[in-house]
Design brief:
The complex is a heterodimer of chains A (216) and B (205).
Chain A: H1 8-15, H2 21-33, H3 35-52, H4 66-73, E1 88-91, E2 94-97, E3 111-113, E4 116-120, E5 128-135, E6 139-140, E7 144-145, E8 149-161, E9 164-167, E10 171-175, E11 179-180, E12 183-184, E13 188-195, H5 210-215
Antiparallel strand pairs in A: 1-2, 3-4, 4-5, 5-13, 6-12, 7-11, 8-9, 8-10, 8-13
Chain B: H1 3-7, H2 11-16, H3 26-39, H4 42-64, H5 67-84, H6 95-116, H7 123-126, H8 142-153, H9 157-167, H10 173-180, H11 184-200
Classes of the chains: A alpha+beta (216), B mainly alpha (205).
Family (chain B): Belongs to the sigma-70 factor family. ECF subfamily.
GO molecular function (chain B): DNA binding; sigma factor activity
Keywords (chain B): Sigma factor, Transcription, Transcription regulation
Chain lengths: 216, 205
């Protein structure tokens, strides 16, 4: 049973393609596991599509695109349905098949401290760091705080902290100064996205693809 | 199937001969896209193109800033619509939404490329266009799909339309009969003949 979900604002930004790659992947993975959020996301994208494509009686002049249209029509090939190869990865001595959204990302070599292993995704997102974190059965993450934010998405297994217990699919987004100490009795694999820098942007903006914000 | 193309041997004349305006309730869009998917209908595609291209450009310009970058998004999005029309499934959502997802994916990859200089295309993994079975490494050979496509392209245009409609667009035989304006029995027998022919030419089904 999934108890922690991305909020509506995050889902809307996700369907519009505005989130950073890391967060887009995390939301995609949650949606694969969560029918109710999937349903919400579908209705958000329908709204976005209706908004982007409002056709009037007269659609103006599209002659500037004639050359493009002819170029497209001159090639009659079609695309075959893509095949998605899932990525297998060993972390913390266990073998995992990663979710589809992560299948083309590259990950660094896992580093382990005690029962905690971490492998960082090569995403080039500045101060935002994305990784896979494996907790072996009985493992404890030392108590820590974040200045920025921390997203933990459970890919398999369970862990708990002072506030509750989390299982596969749970999308736990924590901001600001909170302390927690995750513990996993039987082991788990999570995706984490952490930003420790102080952000000048507020709310959803700090999760958006920064290119968008440079331009505006 | 190729009547329209024969009428306009020169594709440039072809683009000019189309009406500039079109009222477009959703079912019209769906009919147009299915005509592209099943019959490679250039006229239908041109109508979709004229409706969507200006809107896509407007949207892309607000995301990317420059005219040139926006034109690239239009070109890539509409090329995808042309080349992937057979993957559209009318039971899964509206044409508007389908085109939007393609535009969103193309724009996302373009932004990612500017931002991180990474060439890896991840949008397809985050937002797959169709519900496909994901495959564990080494279980499936990419070549076999290409080979199957090659065999399908050897069928007659009528048989291709039926096979692509049923297996790629995922629509029912009844819906296909309506869209192709054929009796259901004809669709069924064409499909049966097409499958027999595919087996005969050695396709692994």
């Amino acid at each position: 049973m999934i108890n922690y979900h991305p909020d509506s604002q995050l889902l809307t930004s996700y369907v519009s393609g505005e989130l950073m790659t890391s967060f887009s992947c995390a939301v995609a993975i949650h949606l694969e596991k969560c029918p109710s959020c999937r349903h919400k996301a579908e209705s958000f994208i329908e709204q976005k599509a209706c908004h982007a494509f409002q056709f009037e009686e007269s659609n103006g002049d599209s002659s500037e695109f004639d050359g493009m249209l002819n170029a497209i029509l001159s090639d009659d090939g079609i695309d075959t349905p893509p095949i998605n190869y899932l990525k297998e990865m060993e972390i913390g001595g266990e073998q995992f098949t990663l979710p589809r959204a992560l299948s083309k990302l590259s990950f660094g070599k896992a580093s382990s401290i005690g029962k905690i292993s971490r492998s960082r995704a090569k995403l080039d997102e500045g101060s935002v760091r994305t990784s896979l974190m494996h907790i072996e059965a009985g493992g404890k993450v030392p108590q820590h705080t974040h200045k920025g934010y921390e997203l933990t998405l459970v890919l398999s297994g369970k862990f708990k902290d002072e506030s509750g217990e989390y299982s596969e699919g749970d999308f736990i987004f924590l901001e600001g100064k909170h302390k927690h100490q995750p513990v996993s009795v039987n082991g788990c694999l999570c995706m984490t996205i952490v930003s420790d820098s102080l952000h000048f942007t507020q709310g959803i903006n700090k999760l958006l693809n920064p290119i968008g914000t440079y331009i505006y | 199937m190729a009547t329209a193309t024969r009428l306009f041997a020169n594709t440039h004349e072809y683009a000019k001969a189309l009406p500039m305006t079109l009222k477009s309730p959703p079912q019209d869009l769906e009919q147009l896209l299915l005509d592209v998917a099943l019959k490679r209908d250039k006229n239908a595609f041109s109508q979709l193109f004229k409706l969507f291209a200006p809107k896509i450009k407007h949207h892309a310009q607000s995301k990317l800033g420059s005219q040139d970058a926006a034109n690239d998004i239009v070109q890539e999005t509409m090329t995808n619509v042309w080349r992937k029309a057979h993957l559209f499934n009318p039971n899964k959502g509206a044409v508007n939404t389908w085109v939007y997802t393609i535009m969103r994916n193309v724009t996302f990859d373009a932004l990612r490329k500017i931002q991180s200089n990474r060439e890896d295309v991840v949008s397809e993994d985050i937002w797959p266009l169709i519900d496909i079975e994901t495959v564990k490494p080494m279980e499936e050979d990419h070549l076999s799909t290409n080979l199957l496509m090659k065999h399908i392209n050897e069928l007659s245009p009528e048989q291709q339309a039926v096979v692509k409609g049923i297996y790629f667009s995922g629509i029912s035989q009844e819906q296909l009969a309506i869209h192709l304006d054929l009796p259901l029995g004809t669709v069924k027998s064409r499909l049966r003949l097409a499958m027999a022919k595919l087996k005969a030419i050695g396709a692994h089904l």
